[in-house]
Each structure stands twice: as structure tokens, then as C-alpha cells.
Amino acid sequence: MPASIRRMAKPAQILHLGLTFFLVSSHYINNTGYMDTEDTLLGLAALAQGTRLEVFRLLVQAEPLGIAAGELARRLAVPQNTMSAHLAVLFRAGLLVSERHSRSIIYRANLLRLRELVLFLLKDCCSGHSEICAPLIADLASCCPVKEVCS
Fold first, then answer.
1. How far is CA 84 from the centre of its chain?
2. What global pTM score does this model have?
């Protein structure tokens, strides 16, 4: 998909229309099968702030149920308008999905997007020497038991 079209379909624009939007892997992957650098930087920049990182960690822990925006603000003792701004940054980066339930918006971590970020960082990390990355990959595999789905 050309970058100009991909940019037009940003999650924040779709949220603005009041639609539920679940990200699919191909939305953020270029024609080589990997995320592009710009989208990776957007995701990493979104996580490079303390409150946003804590929000994302809470949402990962709450999978698959998610947490309402107001509850996130309460748990982290952040004003709701500030929380809204943080959620918007994470959403634009593709790290969150949302769904309206009555008057609340329930946010969930986009684990597929997290997977894509990690894979982008690990791509070609070992330069043909698998023993370099093997311990890191083993650590990542152990965080999610086989019976759970970590997609």
C-alpha cells in the first residue's frame, strides 16, 4: 500500500468518526514484509514517555478485557483530559484498539503491533549468527506460556 494511502487511514481519523477499528498486521507493514522505519519510530516515541508506558503496560496486563479510559486515569492518578491526550498518542501509533461500550471507551493493547515493533528491532540483529539473539528470543518466549495466545 502506498505511504500516502496508508497515512490517510490513520487510526485517529477512524476513531474520530466514531467507528471501532481493529488494526490488522498489513496496515503497518511495508512491501518487504516488515514495518517501515517511520511507523516503528512512531510506536517507540509513543512509549518513550512514563505515563504512556505505564498505560500500555496496564493494558497488556488487562488483556483481553481492556480498561476504560476513566479507570486508567484513576489508577494512574492522571487527570482525565491528560489521559485522553496520552491515549490519543498511543492510538495514533497503533498501539491501542478501542471499543465503545455504552458511555465508556474500552482500550486494549494492540499486541500484534507490539509484536511487529519487537520483530522490527530484532530483524537482522544477529547478522547470521543465531547464537547472538538466541538468549533474547528465549526470554521473550518465556514471558508467554504456550497455552496462552500472545498475538
1. 16
2. 0.68
- H or E stretch covering 68: strand 67-68
Q: Which helix (H) or strand (E) holds 104?
A: strand 104-109
Q: How far apart are CA 90 and CA 7, in angstroms?
A: 16
User: CA dihedral in degrees (111, 113, 114, 115; nearest 10)?
Assistant: 90
Residue 12's pLDDT is 37
pLDDT, tens digit, 9 for 90 and up, residues 78-115? 999 999 999 999 999 999 999 998 888 999 999 999 98
Question: Is the pLDDT confidence value at 41 over 50?
Answer: yes
d(CA 10, CA 32): 20
Task: For the chain, give percent helix, strand, coil, nearest 5.
Answer: 55, 10, 30
- Give the closest residue to 23 by CA, choosing from 102, 111, 120, 87: 111
Q: Are 6 and 23 a contacting pair, CB within 8 Å? A: no
Residue with cell 518513550: 48
